[in-house]
Amino acid sequence: MSLQVDYRIYSLPKGLAPDEGSPAWLSKGDNAWQLTATTFVGLQSVPGLVILYGSMVKKKWAVNSAFMALYAFAVALLCWVLWAHRMSFGNYNSPLVGKPMNSLQDGFLLGQMDASHHLPMADYVFYEFAFAAITVILLAGSLLGRMNFYAWMMFVPLWLTLSYSVGAFTIWGSGFFQRKIIDYAGGYVIHLSSGVAGFTAAYWVGPRHSHDRQHFPPNNIIQTLGGAGFLWLGWTGFNGGSPFGAGLITSLAIINTHICTATSLLVWLAIDMIVYKKSSVIGAVQGMITGLVCITPGAGLVDPWAAVLMGMMSGSIPWYTMMVLHRKSAFFQSVDDTLGVFHTHAVAGLLGGLLSGLFARPSLLNLMYPSENYGPGLLHSEGQFHRGLRQMGYQILGAMFITAWNAAVTSFICLFISRIVNLRMDEEDLEVGDDAVHGEEAYALWGDGETMPKPRRLRIPPICRRLVSTPS
């Protein structure tokens, strides 16, 4: 997705074809696909992650978890169009970030995206918003079940502004990594950053209530599968929309995405069955997610056989870090990452970025980035091994930068917010859950939309307790 866009304020075309109502540069096929792909990506968040989060947590946190995702989606859009899009993809301001400018002018939104893409700028702005929104929503998976909602309301715009925009500008925009790091659709910018930032924020927010941390069953596994389905099929737009056109790379990216995901799910499931003697539905969902994440940085740039290998590794390596290493490591145990976002996104995103540097085919790189100067994947660097080795070095360097930046900036944001409100809910609210935070509960158990009344504890006066305990 590494594009360099000329951010002039385009004037609207004077002459439109009378039977089409569109300028000559607009490709209706590309435009229709891009809007469809953006809708797919949006559906991954709303309702996809809203349903997934609301059903994967304990019943008393269903409303709060789902609403954290819905709120983030809404506020991210306003931040994006008012300043964050231009910070991420706009005119050069510094090696780290572009100039924060408004993207809402008609002359800007309805002008051509750039000379090589036959789309209006509005498509570009909205598609990139969907990416930004899902990144911060993925991050929320590490914080479910205890973060103060008022702190979350401040966290979302601050993190998008100070963290996400920097990652997008340095790797995809005009920052100091431009035309160097292979990150087709966000293995680093989206998944590594959300995994690292989520883990860091979880450290500062603190753990869930002790009972919740020990006993946190999903409240509705069938709905979990529904949310997972939105996530999986929505990835068709996630990776299929990144070329900003309905071409060969688009088709290859989509089929590679689903091949890798299916392989990863089956590998994770097989390991669960071998080790635990049971086929875990939640485990299969985790394997699905790691496959989607791993293929993202190289979806349109690797061969299908490489997608199978990436799926095998994404179904096994994150399984090991989550199910074995996490339980043995005092470092991982000290941080309460509610849904294991570090493993499913940071580990899988890093794995995908490194494997993309290994498997990226030069001919596919040239199709995706005709004017770019990426080195070939290390396995395809015959006669130019030094270029393949240098490209792998850039993949490692990019991962180190994204990790360090997100850990530092997320810590700063959490410390800043903690000076204003508590990051974590009060212990009393943690015991109650949704009703204490929002005054609402997920499920009506009886009557006309009413919840079952909580039994009141009978208080016996001390004198009566003595009379009852005194032997006759």
Automatic annotation (TrEMBL):
- Primary location: membrane
Residue intervals passing through the bilayer:
32-54, 61-83, 124-144, 151-173, 185-206, 218-238, 244-269, 281-299, 305-326, 338-360, 396-417
Q: How does it sit in the membrane?
A: Multi-pass membrane protein
Single GO biological process annotation from the record? ammonium transmembrane transport
Q: Where is the Ammonium transporter AmtB-like domain?
A: 32-443
Instruction: List the Pfam families.
Output: Ammonium_transp
Question: Can you list the GO cellular component terms from the UniProt entry?
Answer: plasma membrane
**Subcellular compartments:** Cell membrane; Membrane
Keywords, alphabetical: Ammonia transport, Membrane, Transmembrane, Transmembrane helix, Transport
The Gene Ontology terms for molecular function here are: ammonium channel activity
| Record-linked InterPro entries | Ammonium/urea_transptr, Ammonium_transpt, Ammonium_transpt_CS, NH4_transpt_AmtB-like_dom, RhesusRHD
Query: NCBIfam families from the xrefs?
Result: amt
UniProt lists the family membership as follows:
Belongs to the ammonia transporter channel (TC 1.A.11.2) family.
Give the protein's recorded name: Ammonium transporter
Q: Which organism is it from?
A: Theobroma cacao (Cacao)
State the organism's lineage: Eukaryota, Viridiplantae, Streptophyta, Embryophyta, Tracheophyta
